[in-house]
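Complex record, two chains
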Amino acid sequence: MSDNGRVTLTIDGQEVTVPAGTLVIRAAESLGIEIPRFCEHPYLDPVGACRQCIVEVEGQRKPITSCTTPVEEGMVVRTQHTSEMAHKAQEGMLELLLINHPLDCPVCDRGGECPLQDQALAWGPGESRYIDPKRVFRKPIPLSPLVLLDRERCVLCTRCTRFCEEISGEQFIEMFDRGAAQQVAIAPGEDFRSPFSGNTVQICPVGALTSETYRFAARPFDLKSADSVCPHCACGCTIRVDIRRGEVVRHQARDNPEVNDAWLCDKGRYAFRFPDRDRVTTPLLRVPGLEPASFAEVFGAIAERARGGRVAVLAGGRLTDEDAYALSKLARTAFRTNDVDHRLTGTQDVPLDVERAAAAGPGVTYRDLEKAGAIVVVGLDAREELPILHLRIRKAVRKTGARVFVIHPRRTALTDVAEHIPCRPGGEADVLEEIVAASGGDSAAARVTAALGEAGGSAVILAGPGLAASPGAVSMAVSMAQSLGARFAFLSRRAGDRGALRAGLHPGLLPGGRAVDDESERGEVEPLWGSIPGEPGRDARTILEAAARRELDLLYLIGADLRGDFPDAALADRALENVPFLVVQDISLGSEGQSADAVLPAAAFLEKEGHFTDWEGRGQRITPVRGPEGLSRPDWQIFQELSETLGADMGFSSLEALHTEMGNLLAPRSVSISPGGSRREPRPEAEGLELFTYPLLVDEGRLSVDADELKAALGTDSFVEVNPGDATRLGLAEGNEAVVRTEAGEARLPVRVSAGIVEGAAFVPYNQRGFRANVLLSGTTRAMATVEPATAAVEAAG
Amino acid sequence: MAEFEPVLTARWRTDGADTIDGYLRSGGYEGLKKALSMSPSDVIEAVKASGLRGRGGAGFPTGLKWEFTAKAQSTPKYVVCNADEGEPGTFKDRELLERDPHQLLEGVAIASHAIGCRTAFVYLRGEFLYAGRQLERAVAEAYDRGYLGRGIAGSDQDLDIVLHRGAGSYECGEETALLESLEGKRGQPRLRPPFPAVVGLYGAPTVINNVETLSAVPHILARGADWFAGIGPEKSTGTKIFCVSGKVARPGNYEAPMGTPARVVIDELAGGVPDGKRVKAWTPGGSSTPFLTDDHLDTPMDFESITAAGSLLGTGAVIVLDESDCVVDAALRFTQFYAHESCGKCTPCREGTWWLTKVLYRMENGGGRSEDVDVMVDVGDNMLFKNFCALGDGAVSPIHSSIKFFRGEYLEHVRVGGCPLRERPALGAAEPREAGVTGVVELGEVLR
């Protein structure tokens, strides 16, 4: 071996030096030599099943498979380009692969983008000598409402089953039988209920696995495609959006080793119809019904109300970094207010420093997880809330042996690779404090402390968005990171969240996390923006309370599904009813739009240029695949034009100019986090169960409109989940109805009894079929609740 | 041959030799006692010096295999006896298990001592019901008499044996597929390296030896490596059990020194071809070893000589075809077996055996074309050494060798539109079982 663990070998006469352990197939790729393959996939372990990648190695008696053979010093490899043996072997292998393949390419979804088709064309024999009958199976078999299986087309590469085993850990499908009868199969009566099932379709090298949403929908040459970033959550998965005749037909993962590897969750893949449904395509003005108007008329109406009036701005999670920046500037310079917020999830107990640090620049990355000896996940159900982070945590366990601890009231899907530390909702800070204090012994807390100690500075603490609803917990997580020498990340949930924070869609923060009330920090922004009000503004909840009390003149909602997202449905309703002038800027009307006084049509993510910043703080570019629908425009452009009517000068009229200005303010700054909290107030004792909620991956959110196949495969009706002990004590039984009561409201929900949830807690998913949990909430995602059998409730009422 | 004294099969004709009392009466467990008095490395040296090579077909030096495992750093270590005898024409391990199970257990115990194993496994072909009962009884007796369990044979060594019955897959005789199966997984082979000697059963260093190999070990210990090495040629030492079947007067297992000429095995031991007919073709080591012809009958039956003659000693399973037998039919039968037993993991074996079965079936039943002969040769070329494991390579043997020696007979099948030798329905005349796959199959339904 040569120095630094690098190895030099010769492939087709060219010398190449690669790290020791590199597979021959990879080394060849580094020289631009592509060796055909089917079973090999860069993110899956080598298996050597298809035997397509055979090459000749000097001194080896037998041919070798380049996908399973690591390089050796001085190795001389000859691929199909220079070895007659390799060429013949590959040609022969393709002929063998095709003897039982139906060759129904003209009606196969894969036709035109099929590795079997492409490689048969490039390296196959052209004609088959096989004249006997082919293998026949019933087809297609629905594995789930999303994924269909055609066993005749299958080349048995096992990429799909290996994905389920190695990557998602959800082994719904497996190889059955043997010989030519070998086939992909699923247990009778089981559905492929994995939220990562669509990846198997994308990595299938033939048309054996197809998506219900894309079956017979398009030919590759009919598609227009553009590179984008998934708009569904803060994972930042890079995607390719495919449209046919202007309509979206498919999302596919783009290879991105920094972020999503080659994967996508099923929501990101299959909830793609929203930009083509219920679009608002023209500005609207209330006269008294909502009627089409010109942008000038709407801008005029807004200007009239805003001048001298009290304006507040609330943004949802779908804005690009550029949109968020333009809005932040519009609010401060044109509306002259700091009453701006993007955090629609209610009361947040998050130290301002944590947000300042997140706004200042990138932090912990996906890659850091693979370098981390230990990972503590707290307040996050990763598979449901940030699914690709869930996969990357699993990868860290599998590839580098990271030890993972999950502190959560429910047993999450990481349980098989992590130690689950159950925790009462609201009790997170106590558990974290125990860990900080632990020294020796065999408690869970001591194991975490020991693992973090062993991991040294590589350890990572991931605080989920839900942790903000737990008093003192984020602060305690910061303390823990500081005292145990771990890195810390407070995770955002929605695609636009981190960008909005970076841009200053926050009542106390300007771009880059600069404090509004810090004269010198404000002074860094003012040369570009002009003077900015120096008093921190009101947060989302306070803004809504002001609106409900008729203390606002204009409420401007941008991509904000207030009735859906805000954890106090009654307050959202009162605010929307009582605000004198409501402006809604969005891609579709939604329920807020129905009651709006003015509506501005926004372009969808796939119609504009810009960036999304993921939870890591990594900005990634999106590009338009089509022009804006109707008269809709990119949000930043609407803000820029509106500012002119308001008599303010945004200082840019092109995206390039906006970028330049934004780049100056958003260059990474270093912000130190002051020590987190230590001893906290004991929690007040209260009656009932601690109700907590967070959204499940597949829910009734607005971006999942018309994603019927996805919901059929993975969606659930709403439910209330309790521990068996509580169920017995309260007379609740699985499947029976229960009445859940909080001070905010009540609901009848089917009961789920699960040992996976801690005693004393009740979980209601945030937004499933049949029920939205914010009816039960008063401004935060936790509440005290009573849960009793529905029959008892009826008797009591009677 | 009269002066040859059988070794592994010596007890076969003695009533009661399969019981522990009978076994002990005839010098049983002396080899183990000897081994336990030696250091593990001395035991390995003795086996190395004996020249014993694996009797499962590959002929790998047994002592070397033990040494690799003994030297592997991690613990625990395991001994696995491969008793999944499935090669067509091979039936020596079955008889060894049925008639002398303690001989195997003693070999397993010696191997365990040599490599430092405290739990050994016997992976037994599931269909071997009687052999399984014999082995179970022998294991119980050995525990009872202190040759298994705590402190075996009065030593401070412990050894447990786990008997596992296979579920009917030929592929599980492949050592890594066997390990997968033993671990409860699908019986498909593993990538090598790492080799089982380093990463084997449950990730632990593992020795996997054939029944006949382990059965020879007690004798080597009891009578000395030199004695064993003195039998047979220099590189293929010891005795070998030849399983003779097909067109011979007395089919059965015959133990003889390595290097005994095939003619002696067929004519003298097995009584020769009946009815005065000639040997047409024969396999030296089962269906996966290339056919030889009557021109090769003077070849000594040892690893080197048989390889030099263009075939492989394999398991020493001599299947004899006489001049009235159809070579195409024989090749079809063998190929159907491989198509049926292919695990499906790799393309050449899975698809190649399917294809060859289809062509041979046509040829034997009247649909052959003259170009099919070269197609079969080329499909065989495209399979050979490109398979994941040896199963697919073995499947090519009957094809290539039968065409090499009997191309004319294939072309005659084409010319007359079927089998020219057929007086009765050909053995392979039934529709190939895999043809059933052309029926519509429900998900999860087994195709056979």
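Note: Chain A has a mean pLDDT of 95.
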